[in-house]
Write a structure and sequence with these properties.
With about 500 residues, the chain is α+β, with helices and mostly antiparallel strands. It has 17 helices and 14 strands. Flavin-adenine dinucleotide binds next to strand 5, strand 7 and helix 14.
């Protein structure tokens, strides 16, 4: 089933059990709450995309699990072409929203569980596979909006889950019943969490036997008794409440939240991993690589918005053709297209992890993508601010521009070239400010899908230094026998590829 954007919004309007808080106040209708509404609209864009002419083909896919067309955000990738379509769709949706549209984490969680439960079944434990396929059907038939909740609050970072002074620092099972499990703990920074139908929970790190109670994956409707969501603040977020159409957010927004599981009951048919600590390492690796690949699409899409706003702002002051500006714009394009190219490489070089499919990205290029994303957006924003001028940090409010007492003065003094009115310049400045200094373009780029150190760990695991050493020794005429593998890249298989 394919839901329209309106159907999605109607579906999340009412929460009877889950307690959602924004700036200290309980919210019952997230669709009308001024703080959350821009975020609901960004999420809605992922549903609308399936019905808009330019995105229809990218946003739809045929699901062999229900023999129907589904929204790509709930699709299980069937080959490299699907992985490529993901990156392209994300770039385009960034153009339409100017923000993070929040639906990727749940999508990556679905694809991860498809592979991990499939691997478990190949090893003879098919119970999770059966449950997951039923859950997938449930999601695809209803075109559900999912959050992916992996990141635990983690307490003392150097201690394992079972060693923590706070035993709930990682989500864990506190009771096992005939009909299911009871879970306790909290997941942090969860994108779009107040605006979803359901939350898919995954373990956040590789675990040991002592951590077995923490090796748990499950899905629950957000509106489940015991669920508490506390939505986080963002830069300039109060502007949403001011009622403006320039300073406020005429564009859309995203939100993250802390989701607390206060002794939440989960029936067995929604438990996709429990006590299987050996599978937590591959699960984290598979999820992280999927998510790192996707950033090549959405962040380059935001990069386009920034490049576009910068170029137009250069025109407002008549410097768009100057060599110093052209050079900086070219640098921005290079940085932006590098992120996108890496995301595409990770997709085209994807491979099958299951006998029946289970298409995964190339983990090396997915990690390269994310590492570029952790760096380049800051460079892009710096160049944008350079070209836009100090006004990007000092522009007066739209309410000044609307004040009859000073309107004429501002129109006169904010204007650059005479052909472009001051209001246009102010609109572009606000767009640039909102996107280039946003959580979505900067902080999420560093930490989303794991901090930069996590990618460096993967580079060291995946790069075959011994092979590169053999090549160097052979060329140096040091006596060595090089065994030439078919693949030219000196690469070791990842944990998941070895399974
Ligand atoms: C905007 C945004 C959206 C996000 N969306 C989601 C989401 O939808 N779902 C989800 O599950 N997660 C999400 N995340 C969370 C993201 O995955 C985490 O932020 C990321 O994994 C880093 O974890 P942390 O924030 O707890 O940082 P920390 O773990 O506190 O890391 C801080 C620093 O400490 C270092 N560090 C941590 N542990 C160690 C150690 N043992 N030894 C040495 N150094 C260490 C890190 O390398 C880093 O430099 C989101 C994050 C952001 C910012």
């Amino acid at each position: 089933m394919l839901r329209t954007g309106e159907q999605y919004v109607e579906g999340i309007r009412e929460r009877r059990h889950a307690k959602i808080y924004v700036m200290g106040k309980r919210v019952t209708d997230v669709t009308t709450n001024l703080f959350l509404k821009p975020s609901v609209l960004a999420f809605k864009a992922t549903f609308d995309a399936a019905f808009q002419e330019d995105t229809r083909d990218l946003a739809r896919a045929f699901s062999p699990f229900i023999n129907e067309e589904v929204n790509r955000f709930v699709h299980i990738h069937q080959g490299p072409q699907d992985l490529v379509a993901k990156v392209k769709l994300l770039r385009r949706l960034s153009h339409k929203t100017g923000t993070c549209f929040q639906r990727c984490v749940g999508w990556d969680a679905l694809n991860t569980l498809y592979i991990v439960t499939g691997k478990m079944a190949e090893r003879g434990d098919g119970v999770y596979r059966e449950r997951f396929l039923k859950y997938l059907e449930h999601v695809q038939r209803r075109d559900l909006a999912l959050a992916g909740a992996m990141t635990d609050v983690k307490g003392v970072r150097t201690l394992r889950p079972s060693e923590q002074p706070n035993p709930d620092a990682y989500v864990r099972v506190v009771e096992e019943r005939d009909d299911g499990i009871v879970v306790s703990g909290a997941k942090a920074n969860i994108t779009g969490v107040a605006a979803v139908d359901e939350v898919v929970v995954l373990p956040t790190r590789a675990m040991t036997e002592q951590d077995a109670a923490y090796a748990v994956s499950f899905a629950v409707p957000l509106d489940t008794p015991g669920v508490v969501v506390v939505v986080g603040r963002q830069i300039n977020d109060a502007r949403r409440m001011e009622g403006g159409d320039i300073d406020g957010v005429p564009y859309m927004a995203h939100h993250e939240g802390l989701i607390i599981f206060n002794n939440v009951f989960v029936p067995w048919d929604r438990v996709f991993m429990y006590k299987d600590w050996r599978w937590t390492g591959p699960l984290v690796e598979i999820f992280a690589s999927f998510h790192r690949q996707g950033y090549g699409g959405c962040k380059s899409g935001l990069g386009d918005v920034i490049i576009g706003a910068t170029y137009e702002l250069a025109k407002t002051i008549g410097v768009d053709n100057k060599p110093n500006v052209a050079d900086k714009l070219a640098e921005m394009v290079f940085l932006n297209e590098s992120m996108y190219s890496a995301g595409l490489a990770a997709s085209w070089e994807g491979s099958k992890l299951l006998k029946e499919g289970g298409w995964w990205v190339n983990p090396m290029y997915a990690n390269v993508t994310k590492h570029l994303v952790a760096r380049f957006p800051y460079e892009i924003s710096k160049l944008a601010h350079d070209i836009a001028g100090g006004i990007v940090g000092t522009a007066p409010s739209e309410f000044d521009l609307k004040n009859e007492e000073i309107k004429n003065l501002l129109e006169k003094y904010l204007q650059g070239v005479p052909e472009i009115p001051a209001e246009e310049r102010l609109r572009l400045v606000r767009l640039l400010e909102n996107v280039s200094v946003s959580v979505g373009f900067l902080i999420e780029s560093v930490h989303g899908a794991g901090s930069p150190a996590a990618q460096k760990i993967m580079f060291n695991r995946l790069y075959d230094y011994e092979k590169a050493g053999e090549i160097a020794k052979a060329l140096s005429r040091i006596k060595v026998t090089v065994k030439w593998p078919k693949a030219p890249e000196p690469r070791r298989p990842s944990e998941s590829e070895k399974l």
